[in-house]
Specification:
The chain has eleven helices and 13 strands. With 315 residues, it is α/β, with parallel strands linked by helices. The strands form two sheets. It has a nine-stranded mixed β-sheet, with helices on both faces. The chain is globular and about 65 Å long.
């Protein structure tokens, strides 16, 4: 059985270092390195959770191009089930050019590509049937799948008895609740960041945000609060709590920290840990992430993560 089926976006990240200015037309400036990495919420989560020792599958879309082949190769190499990966010859793979300045600040050029064309018609339902948890991640960056199709997909997953989890990206178009409300009744666990939660709920207080989500049908809420940890409410009746995160020895790169948090939560949840333990595990995974370069590099095994938590709790 597949522990977690990750449904959503895959991105090829072209990271360019060091870029201190954009050349004028016709000019060439040298840089230190140009490297390609895996990216995208669903791909990052599938790789992370697999690294933690669980069985994962990916459901998404790439183009029949160099970037698409690179992403599939990396998934196959790490043992992620790719039977749900749709390859479309008529669209390019989603990609980003990430320009890293001397001070570490990043600027992005992004091609939506295949992620914008992914639809419910691309879903391999055999993967869903075999999955314990279905994790939709990348909402607001999937133009076709967002909104009504996401709601239809999650509703069907619930009818099949699956645990449904959803995370979102920042919505620069400002659609927020308008695009997500229809899907809320079919979400078991909602994992937005604090900025995303504010915009979706239209509230500034963490408790009020979670109450708004419960009213719309979500069963459990975990709001990622960066270096402050997270706010977690297992149910409307249980109330919420702030759970502090762990101190990183050195913050190297925050890329993928939110995805790593979600990965840690799901890895623990799939293994039957308590809600509080899942949140602690999520915080630990996020902490490991920021101590290494890249979205997946810092993730440790399940056993290493458990040991880290015990040491930091003084056990």
């Amino acid at each position: 059985m597949i522990d977690v089926a990750c449904v959503g976006i895959l991105v090829a990240d072209i990271i360019i270092s060091t870029v201190n200015e954009i050349p004028a037309k016709g000019l060439l400036y040298p840089v230190d390195s140009i490297e390609m990495y895996t990216g995208g919420n669903a791909m990052t989560a599938a790789l992370n959770i697999k690294k933690m020792g669980l069985k994962t599958a990916i459901i998404g879309k790439v183009g029949n191009d160099m970037f698409g082949r690179f992403l599939k190769e990396k998934l196959d190499e790490k043992g992620v089930d790719t039977k749900g990966l749709s390859i479309d010859k008529d669209v390019c793979t989603s990609s980003s050019a990430v320009m890293v300045a001397k001070d570490g600040e990043r600027s992005f050029l992004h091609c939506v590509g295949a992620n914008g064309k992914f639809s419910i018609k691309d879903v391999n339902w055999a993967i869903i049937e075999d999955a314990k948890i279905v994790f939709v991640t990348g909402t607001y960056l999937m133009d076709t799948f967002d909104g009504a199709q996401t709601a239809e997909f999650l509703k069907t997953c619930k009818e099949k008895g699956k645990i449904t989890v959803l995370d979102v990206c920042y919505d620069s178009s400002g659609r927020w609740a308008q695009l997500l409300d229809e899907a809320m009744p079919y979400i078991d666990i909602f994992l937005p960041s604090i900025d995303e939660a504010k915009n979706i709920a239209g509230k500034d207080n963490l408790q009020e945000m979670s109450e708004e989500f419960f009213k719309k049908g979500v069963k459990s809420v975990v709001i990622k609060c960066g270096s402050d940890g997270c706010y977690a409410a297992e149910s409307e009746a249980s109330g919420g709590m702030m759970v502090a995160t762990y101190k990183a020895e050195k913050v190297v790169d925050t890329t993928g920290a939110g995805d790593s948090f979600c990965s840690g939560f799901l890895a623990a949840y799939a293994r039957g840990k308590s809600f509080k333990e899942c949140v602690e595990f999520a915080n630990a995974a996020g902490t490991f992430n920021v101590m290494a370069k890249g979205a997946t590099t810092g993730i440790k095994t399940f056993e290493e993560t458990e040991k880290f938590i015990k040491i930091n709790k003084g056990e």
